[in-house]
């Protein structure tokens, strides 16, 4: 385990969340689980999603997530963006804006293609502005449209 590990407080959906996350992202696993009694519900767990370790706890109905914390998924290309987006939507996630999507457990994800970061890293402020303006009109990020905005700037 690393020195600093995100700790996620779920209301009562830790087990379902872990199962979904570890089945959706490669390099994922459930490591340690604590239950209430031998066959009782999971109270806490250590799990890995996409190589990142997490601790999770079922803390009760008064815990919820906000957009102040999100998980950033660094995607190779549009196909990978589409793959994760579709898996999240199929599980009941709600798309929001600018590549953000809120999963059925209330956690926000940013599904971002590497190409977006390359384009906004350009030294030409007009090109960066055009890409950012295009991104602000999108729900799911579209690499071809971002590149078009870049080229037309």
TrEMBL record:
| Protein name stated in the entry | Putative 3-demethylubiquinone-9 3-methyltransferase (Glyoxalase superfamily)
* UniProt key word Transferase: yes
Superkingdom of origin organism: Bacteria
GO BP annotations listed: methylation
The protein's matches in InterPro entries, at most eight in alphabetical order, are given as: 3_dmu_93_MTrfase (IPR009725), Glyas_Bleomycin-R_OHBP_Dase (IPR029068), PhnB-like (IPR028973)
Looking up Pfam families in the UniProt record yields: 3-dmu-9_3-mt (PF06983)
Keywords from UniProt, A to Z, are:
Methyltransferase, Transferase, Ubiquinone
- Where the record annotates domain PhnB-like, the positions are 3-112
Q: Does the keyword Cell membrane apply?
A: no
């Amino acid at each position: 385990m690393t020195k600093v590990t995100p700790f996620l407080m779920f209301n009562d959906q830790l087990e379902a969340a872990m199962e979904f996350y570890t089945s959706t992202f490669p390099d994922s696993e459930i490591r340690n689980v604590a239950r209430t009694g031998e066959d009782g519900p999971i109270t806490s767990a250590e799990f890995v999603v996409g190589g990142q370790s997490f601790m999770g706890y079922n803390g009760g109905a008064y815990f919820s997530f906000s957009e102040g914390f999100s998980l950033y998924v660094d995607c190779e290309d549009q196909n990978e963006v589409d793959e994760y987006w579709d898996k999240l939507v199929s599980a009941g996630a709600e798309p929001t804006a600018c590549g953000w999507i809120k999963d059925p457990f209330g956690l926000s994800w940013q599904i971002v293609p590497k190409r977006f970061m390359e384009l906004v890293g350009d030294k030409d402020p007009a090109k960066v502005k055009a890409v950012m303006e295009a991104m602000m009109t999108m729900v799911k990020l579209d690499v071809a449209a971002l590149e078009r905005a870049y080229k037309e700037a």
